[in-house]
Write a structure and sequence with these properties.
The complex is a heterodimer. Chain A is mostly helical. Helix content of chain A is 73%, strand content 0%. Chain A contains 13 helices and no strands. In chain B, a hairpin with a 2-residue loop joins strand 4 and strand 5 (65-66). Classes of the chains: A mainly alpha, B alpha+beta.
């Protein structure tokens, strides 16, 4: 970097050669990452864009150019509209639950001395497990007749609830499972953020009059966790948008389409009905959603997180 | 304004004893410095006074009243941290104003959204702004009030930390090595500024440092600590001129005091390198003692050594250090079982010595310090001035 500051005019040939070597070295360091980026992201995106403008069907030999027909079809499709709304509802439950729940747990766990690592492991376990397998376990737990959750509800004197087959509760139930899956990872991120806050600041605030936990949280913890919170919100939101596995295993979009979500519909169109061109157009819409939300969040939150 | 009284403060962290029953009385408006090597317990002591740490036993009283049951913010003390501990997300103005915000506003008035409901909030804010402005003016920070700590230089951050301490007009200022993160030049400047601030505010200052120069230059009194005990408490000149023990003598003063092994002959006369001195102390014959001679009390002998009955010994130059205004000369004691000695000299004198030949070093016996085997001070029987200083730990 400093080498580029040397003016090319009048530099001895040896140093010009070094500059050239340095540029080559720099480029070759960046090359593997660039190659991977092109192969795994940019190239598939280009193919996706091309497919979304055709009526290609999986396995077909040729396809016709249809322009934006796939996109206008998607915007008019009531099933797609419903799945977008369902996805947004799911995100609206999972993001606050997954972020603030994890923050609360992180603060509680951070306060433990000897048992801290035990709690860390307990809360992190769901992250390490396969969600498909866990979904089966949840299905058993929530089963109206066999599941322990309903047994407990009955014991407490409530009626039994068919969490996953009742239209009013199915999506919320999936959201709770989504939160459960996310909590551990977000907690670890918040714990890292909490550990990075200097102890001096808490002591200074104690002398300055922050006498209770609420004062300390509002004066020090919350503002200083700003960058962590922003990161957690954005990653949680992207993960929530990608809800698929619990739907595929537990509800298949039912009951009455209440748990149809965007990614599940893309899967259906692409791999069940083989409408590859249409599925590609839906994927583009999905990507646009994530991009718009992430950018908007980063900009609005970034303005409030500064130091 | 208040006195601070500590009575037998003891503190251990697990099996490690940090403070072993410290007694200290600090007068109203006094500048007291706790000085000592790292790990001597000085920081723990100041944190106990602040209320950040609880003592195992003993009591703290501020202004004559016990504060042991009070939380840190109720003790009317302010603290300046070594790291300054400025809130990085707040402007300089908000940093200085935080103690006032916390004390003058209710939780409801501080909460986002809810605070919009409060009518007095604007008035309180205006009052805080005025007070912050007044403090900022005293510290020449007015033009920085909207900046954030990350945008300030080290010296400016230091002043913001001072402002945050001053704004509540506390009775006692506690400072935990506030200058050690500054560069050497700024440190010298801030020493003066702190001393002037103390004079202007008239508050009690308790200052922790490991730098003996800071302790010597700013304090009314210095408490030298080691291993959780106060070794000596006195004015800077008392500590320098009459150190109660070898540890105090070694810690205070730069270059460090010269320590030479000596023995007691009959009748308490001191023998240095086999040559009797006129100096005498009480003690049994044959006991080994240590003789402490400050660098400025040691000089190159002019003419014949031993002239006029002055004590002397021979040494060979190892190195000259040029300080500009003077030289520090380092000597080896040729063939003797003793560490080298240092002496101050003018440039002209320094030019007369070199590494090739041995020279005679002579010293003023009345300026010598005598320590017994345990490192405690022994008072000279004749010649030296009579002293009333008694080692605290005896």
């Amino acid at each position: 970097m400093t080498m580029t500051a040397i003016p090319a005019f009048g530099t001895p040939p040896r140093s010009r050669r070094r500059l050239w070597i340095e540029q080559i070295t720099g480029a070759s360091f960046a090359l593997p990452a660039l190659a991977l980026l092109i192969l795994t992201i940019l190239l598939p995106l280009a193919v996706l864009l091309y497919l979304s403008l055709t009526n290609y069907e999986f396995g077909a030999i040729s396809a016709d150019w249809v322009g934006l027909a796939n996109f206008s079809k998607a915007l008019a499709d009531p099933i797609i509209r419903r799945s977008v709304i369902n996805t947004l509802i799911y995100v609206a439950i999972v993001v606050p639950g997954g972020v603030f729940g994890a923050l609360l747990i992180a603060i509680l766990v951070h306060g433990r001395r000897r048992t801290r690592s035990l709690y860390e492991v307990i809360y992190f376990l769901p992250v390490t497990s396969t969600l498909i397998a866990m979904a089966t376990v949840w299905q058993f737990l929530l089963h109206p007749a066999l599941g322990p959750v309903n047994a407990m509800l009955k014991w407490l004197g409530f009626g039994e609830i068919a969490f996953l087959s009742e239209p009013s509760t199915a999506l919320a139930t999936l959201a709770v499972i989504g939160i459960w899956q996310l909590l551990g990872f977000n907690m670890i991120l918040f714990l890292a953020g909490l550990s990075a806050i200097p102890r001096d600041l808490y002591e200074a605030s104690e002398i300055d009059g922050c006498s209770n936990g609420i004062d300390r949280f509002l004066t020090i913890t919350w503002p200083l966790l700003g960058p962590t919170t922003m990161f957690v919100i954005v990653t949680t939101m992207i993960t929530a948008f990608k809800i698929f596995d619990t739907v595929a295993v537990m509800t298949r979009g039912g009951p009455m389409g209440r748990t149809e979500v965007l990614l599940y519909n893309i899967y259906l169109e692409g791999f069940q009905y083989f409408h590859t061109g249409y599925a590609a157009a839906l994927s583009f819409i999905f990507l646009a959603f994530i991009l718009v939300f992430s950018v908007a969040q980063t900009f609005t939150l970034d303005r409030k997180v500064h130091y | 304004m208040a006195t601070v009284d500590l009575t037998s403060i003891a503190k251990s962290f697990g099996p490690t004893k940090v403070l072993g029953g410290v007694d200290l009385s600090i007068a109203d408006g006094e500048f007291l410095t706790l000085v000592g090597p790292s790990g001597c317990g000085k920081s723990t002591l100041i944190r106990i006074i602040a209320g950040l740490e609880a003592q195992d036993s003993g009591g703290v009283a501020i202004g004559g009243a016990s504060v042991d049951h009070l939380r840190a913010h109720e003790r009317r003390v302010a603290m300046v941290f070594q790291s300054y501990a400025l809130y990085p997300h707040m402007t300089v103005g908000a940093n200085i104003g935080l103690p006032l915000t916390m004390s003058r506003m209710t939780l409801r008035q501080r909460l986002p959204l809810l605070r919009l409901l409060s009518r007095q909030r604007r008035e309180i804010l205006r009052g805080i702004e005025a007070d912050v402005g007044a403090v900022a003016a005293q510290l020449q920070l007015e033009h920085l009030l909207d900046r954030r700590p990350a945008q300030l230089s080290g010296g400016q951050r230091q002043r913001v930390a001072l402002g945050r301490a001053m704004v509540r007009s506390p009775d006692v200022f506690l400072m935990d090595e506030p200058l050690s993160n500054l560069d050497a030049k700024l440190r010298v400047h801030m020493r003066t500024e702190l001393a002037e601030l103390h004079k202007r505010l008239g508050a009690t200052f308790i200052y922790v440092t490991h730098d003996q120069i800071e302790a010597m230059t700013m304090s009314d009194r210095v408490a030298m600590m080691d291993a959780g005990d106060v070794l000596q408490l006195g004015t800077p000149s008392e500590l320098y001129e009459r150190p109660a023990s070898i540890k105090v003598a070694q810690f205070i003063g730069s270059p460090a005091i010269n320590l030479l092994p000596a023995t007691l002959a009959g009748s308490g006369r001191i023998e240095l390198f086999g040559r009797p001195l006129s100096l005498a102390v009480n003690g049994t014959a044959g006991a080994s003692i240590t003789l402490g001679i400050r660098a400025e009390a040691l000089s190159l002998a002019q003419g014949e050594p031993g002239q006029g009955g002055r004590a002397w010994f021979s040494a060979r130059l190892r190195r000259k250090e040029n300080l500009g205004s003077e030289y520090i000369l380092h000597f080896d004691l040729a063939g003797r079982d003793a560490p080298g000695v240092t002496t101050r000299a003018t440039a002209a004198t320094a030019a007369t010595v070199n590494e090739t030949a041995e020279v005679a070093l002579t010293f003023d016996e009345t300026a010598c310090h005598v320590f017994d085997v345990g490192g405690e001070r022994l008072e000279p029987r004749n010649g030296g001035a009579v002293s009333s200083v008694v080692p605290l730990r005896a």
